[in-house]
Amino acid sequence: MAPPRTKDSGIPGTTRRKLLAGVAALGTLGAAGCSRVATASNTPGGDLLSRLKAQGVVRLGIAGEIPFGYIDKNGKLTGEAPELAKVVFKRLGVDRVQPVPTEFGSLIPGLNSQQFDVVSAGMYINPERCQQVIFADPDYQMLDSFIVRKGNPKGLHDYRDVVEKKAKFATGTGYAEIQYAVDAGYKEHDILIVPDQVAGLNAVEAGRADVFAGTALTTREVVKKSRKAEATKPFTPLVKGRPHVDGGGFAFRSAETRLRDAFNAELKKMKASGELFRILRPFGFTEAEMTDMTAKELCRG
């Protein structure tokens, strides 16, 4: 989300082979799902929820990013966002979820062109994205972290280190980390943009990049089986000179406020009961990554 990702805007014991296999399986599953996406409505507040109930299925835009939304080694759709979506939409009267795979940078365009109904990819909520879609309140908050060579030979701990030490910097397509690096003084045209955290790990291991920036969760999970790379300690990036904590959540087309509001109502109950944390915990989330921030706050920047 990574990123903006953003995740703007990545499961224990998962190898790179499994990660890549999951992405491949994701394409197969998405291709198999041929039901038509609900079309746009002129109804104030939108009527997508009613139409999804009638169809019995909601199509989720995901980006094959562990742990946010991906296909596991058994071909099953999983990740923090899809597992949350299964529970919430079931309670809203929609029995099934169906994955539609795309690259992270194509999630918002795909949503707005009705390739799927909802973005379910742990997407960071930021002002730029809030001009294009509407968000539910965040279901998690997240700090950043780097993938670096074992031992962190260049001593890279934040974006200022990357600039000062003239490190070769990489991050993912559409990630918020692009802007964080630029704000720290890194030239945007010098950034190596890769599809996801697996490609970022590969770039660091191969020496094409000194550092790959992503969420603390994605970086620490993807390096677990690497002999050449490690994740740095999580840190808070600076935005306009101030510490900034990101929050990720579900995105909806701008007209669909009724669906967004219904989703938010269920999410609020799950936060209060602790159910949300129980769903996210198996994917590496901790209590420190639970949040009471709102989408309105994050949209202000």
TrEMBL record:
Q: Which keywords describe this protein according to UniProt?
A: Signal
What sequence ranges are listed for the domain Solute-binding protein family 3/N-terminal? 57-287
Q: Does the keyword Cell membrane apply?
A: no
Q: Write down the SMART domains for this protein, in alphabetical order.
A: PBPb
- Would I find Signal among this entry's keywords? yes
Gene3D superfamilies given in the database record: Periplasmic binding protein-like II
Family matches, as Pfam families: SBP_bac_3
**Name the record gives this protein:** Ectoine/hydroxyectoine ABC transporter substrate-binding protein EhuB
